[in-house]
Design goal:
By secondary structure, the chain is an all-alpha fold. The chain has a single domain, classed as Amino acid/polyamine transporter I (Up-down Bundle), CATH 1.20.1740.10. The protein contains 23 helices and 2 strands. A two-stranded antiparallel ribbon has the order 1-2. Helix 6 runs antiparallel to helix 7, helix 16 packs across helix 17 and helix 17 crosses helix 19. The radius of gyration is 22 Å and the shape is globular.
């Protein structure tokens, strides 16, 4: 099997999916230009402000991508390339894309609030409280883990730290140019991207050498600033410009793939059970998250993205389109190691890790492009830098999203005057960063991280659950969210049971307790949603 055939089929399949299934979703959700979005009706110049579709897509894509669609498919290739490839195509089209698109629209219809607000409206206040605690705790874990990952990267590769600081300065200048000086987006983007790559050059010439500990303090200060400053001046433009890193990486990798013409030597299917990963079901569907469906996407979509959506129809390209592009990235990640036979692939994965394996494979693709004359070493380093840059993007976005969850938790609908925990973004951010810092320095962060995969997919299942209840309440067809929701609950519940038994046998009681608590959360919300769906169904029958 040729790698070119697989990437071409994926691109064509996703184009058809965007054109036809994306349009189907648009009709089912009654998406219209006539509906005013919260970015206009609630514009506050800080969190709520309209953004042009290319800018918002860049922010959204950079926030949801990270290393997930790269690491997941490569690790899951231990099962063989066929299960990974099929899951990415089917998942991104009918589950992940639906999840992301509907989460944005549902949030837009509820004043740009999170999925928690939808749960409160249609399921109950207790469900909302449980969901927001779960979301905030998950995001705190992301903050702690990515702070460690980014600090390790910056201390071991000083040039990446320098480049990232310069990116931040560039982002502020870009935001001021677009929103205050009203400069044309195309011209500003061309100059901004050129300066972006110049920052990489400067980073290699003037590397900032600091210890891991110092970088952690700097990162904690940065994410506080990124969370409280207006989204248009730092977070949004930085993510937008950073997205061109990944676009360039994907474009170079795909073009290079056509010149390299790799044959797929990985086994189509290996075993249904892999040591340290688990059974094919549910391990495949938890390991390959971002390339197919990830609960973190709904937190981003109903967090920062919905507050910046200029017009409702923009949600199709921003939400559904970004998910499909991420699916292409996942296929590229799979093909970056597919030319290896199974034995050499496993050796590379176990010794170098998924990110290095991806960077090496894509670096080789880019090296084979004629005329541009890029060495394999430079191309590989560029691929590794692009991946590490998105770890920082996930970090600052997760902090702002955690702040939103924290503030929503203390909101009381009946009260006109909300507490300072709701109104003051500085206090909410300070508490969030302080707890994240405590977990970072606790030394327990990485021991808790294995539960993230199941927690992340539980977020996706709950998001689809709340959207299904919302559509049911509106008397709209909800089959296109119900079926994915049932599948994701089956995946999540099975994964949590498996995680519980494996940790009990290893005497890891902390993860065992977390697994039980997540299982109980899923059961409670599932039963409450079932009662609402059943009631809506009975009311519809009575009405007829």
């Amino acid at each position: 099997m040729s790698g070119v055939t697989l990437i071409l089929f994926a691109i064509i399949a996703f184009l058809f999916a965007y054109r036809f299934y994306g349009s189907f979703l648009t009709r089912r959700l009654n998406v219209s230009n006539s509906n005013t979005t919260p970015s206009h009706s609630m514009n506050d110049g800080v969190d709520y402000c309209p953004a042009k579709p290319p800018v918002l897509m860049g922010h959204h894509f950079a926030s949801i991508a990270g290393a997930g669609p790269i690491v997941g498919p490569i690790i899951a290739a231990s099962f063989g390339w066929v299960p990974v490839y099929v899951w990415v195509l089917v998942g991104a089209t009918f589950i992940g894309g639906v999840h992301d698109y509907t989460a944005i629209i549902a949030s837009v219809r509820h004043k740009g609030k999170s999925i928690g607000q939808i749960i409160e409206t249609y399921i109950g206040i207790n469900g909302k409280k449980l969901f927001l605690i779960f979301t905030w705790a998950t995001l705190i874990l992301v903050i702690a883990v990515f702070t460690i990952i980014v600090a390790n990267t910056f201390s071991s590769i000083p040039s990446s730290g320098t480049s990232s600081i310069l990116f931040m300065v560039l982002a502020v200048a870009f935001g001021l140019t677009i929103y205050r000086l009203k400069a044309p987006l195309i011209v500003s983007s061309i100059i901004g991207v050129a300066l972006l790559f110049f920052c990489i050059y400067l980073g290699n010439i003037f590397p900032i050498v600091l210890s891991r500990q110092i970088w952690i303090y700097i990162l904690l200060g940065y994410i506080f600033i990124a969370s409280v400053t207006p989204v248009w001046i730092l977070l949004q433009p930085r993510d937008y410009l950073n997205s061109f890193f990944l676009y360039a990486l994907m474009f170079g990798g795909i073009v290079g793939l056509f010149f390299t013409m790799p044959e797929v030597h990985l086994s189509p299917v290996t075993n249904f059970t892999i040591d340290k990963i688990g059974y094919l079901f549910p391990a495949l569907f938890v390991t390959v998250a971002c390339g197919a469906i990830s609960g973190f996407h709904s937190v981003v979509g109903s967090g920062t993205t919905a507050k910046q959506l200029d017009k409702e129809p923009d949600a199709k390209v921003v939400g559904y389109g970004s998910m499909l592009v991420e699916g292409i990235l996942a296929v590229l990640a799979l093909l970056s190691v597919a030319s290896l036979d199974q034995q050499h692939f496993l050796e590379l994965l176990n010794t170098k890790g998924a990110v290095t394996a991806f960077a090496t494979g894509v670096g080789n693709f880019i090296h084979n492009i004629p005329l541009i004359n890029i060495s394999t070493e430079v191309a590989t380093n560029f691929a590794a830098l692009a991946v590490s840059a998105f770890a920082l993007t996930s970090l600052d976005t997760a902090t702002r999203l955690a702040r939103f969850s924290f503030q929503e938790f203390f909101e009381v609908k009946e009260k006109k005057e909300q507490s300072f925990l709701v109104k003051n973004r500085f206090v909410a951010t300070a508490i969030t960063v302080a707890v994240g810092a405590a977990l970072t320095f606790s030394g327990q962060t990485m021991s808790i991280w294995p539960v993230f995969g199941s927690a992340n997919q539980l977020l996706a299942a709950i998001a689809l659950l709340s959207i299904t209840v919302w559509l049911s309440n509106l008397k709209l067809d909800f089959s296109f969210t119900l079926i994915p929701m049932l599948f994701m609950f089956a995946v999540t519940m099975t994964a949590l049971v498996t995680l519980f038994y494996s940790n009990i046998s290893n005497e890891n009681y902390v993860l065992s307790i977390i697994s039980v608590l997540l299982f109980i959360l899923a059961v409670i919300l599932g039963l409450q949603a079932y009662q609402v769906l059943r009631k809506n169904g009975q009311n519809e029958v009575l009405a007829k």
